[in-house]
C-alpha cells in the first residue's frame, strides 16, 4: 500500500502535454510568425538606412543625436520581433508534432529575443519622451533649453538611457537569482519576468509615447506665435518630424499596448491583439519615411548617398527679364 502511494507522488511528467485544443490555437500564430519574419527584415532595413543617413554628416550627428540613439533602440525592438518568430515558430511546430513541450523555468526564458524586445520596450518610449520634452522646452522655455539641454545633450541622453536600462536590468537580475519553475513553455516576457511585469511594460509604453506626443503638440501650438526666421524654420521642420513620429508611435504602439493592459482585467478580442508585433515593426521603419517626406536636407542627403553624390541640386531665382538670364539659375537635378 505504501509503495502505491509513493508511485503516485513521483509520477510528475518531465514535460508539458500539448492538447489538441491548444494545437488548433497554435497554427494561426505559426502563420503569423512567418509573416513577422519578412516584415521584420524589411522594417529593420529601413531603420538601418535611417541610421546610416543620420550618421553620414557631422551636422546631422549634432542635430539629431537623440534620433540616432533612437534608431539603435528601434533595432533592438525590430531584432526582437524577428528572433521571436525564428525561435518560436520551430518550437511550436515541434510541440505540435510531439504533442508535448519541455518544461521551462523563468531563467530559461531569458532568451535573446525576450531581452531584445524588453530593451526596445523601455528604451524607445524613453527617448521619444526626451525628444518631446526637448522640443517643448526649446519653443516654450528657450532660455532653459539653451542653459540645460544644449550643453548637456549627451549627458541627458545617457541619463534617460540609464533609466530605461534599470527597468530591464533589475527584473532580469531578479529572474536570474530567483527563477520560477514551470512557467509557460513557449516563454515570453511574462514567463521570464512575471505577469505583473507585463503591466509595467505596457503602461510604460503608453505613458511614454503619449507624453511625447503631448509635449510635441504643445510645442507646435506655441511655435505658431514665433516669428519665422531661417533658424526657426529649421527648428519647425525638426518639430514636425518629432510630432509625426510621436503621433505614429502612439497610434501603432501605445494603442495596442492599451488593449494589452485592458486584457489583464477583462477579455479583449484577439483581432485587436494579434497585429501588435507588425505594428511595432512599422513604428520603427516609418521614421525613415517621415524624415524623407518632411525634411528637405535629409531627403537631399539620402539622394546623395544613393547616387554616390552624382546628383546635384542647383537652386536658382526665377527670371524677371531676359537680361537677367546670364545671372539666373534654375532648380534642377543633374548628373555629371
TrEMBL record:
Record keyword tRNA processing present: no
Tell me which stretches of the chain form a coiled coil: none
Transmembrane stretches, start-end:
35-55, 156-178, 202-221, 242-265, 271-294
- UniProt entry keywords in alphabetical sequence: Membrane, Transmembrane, Transmembrane helix
InterPro entries, alphabetized: 7TM_GPCR_Srsx, 7TM_GPCR_Srsx_nematod
- Offer one Pfam family short name for this entry: 7TM_GPCR_Srsx
Record keywords: 4Fe-4S included? no
Entries under SUPFAM superfamilies matching the protein:
Family A G protein-coupled receptor-like (SSF81321)
The name this protein carries in UniProt is G_PROTEIN_RECEP_F1_2 domain-containing protein
Q: Which organism is it from?
A: Panagrellus redivivus (Microworm)
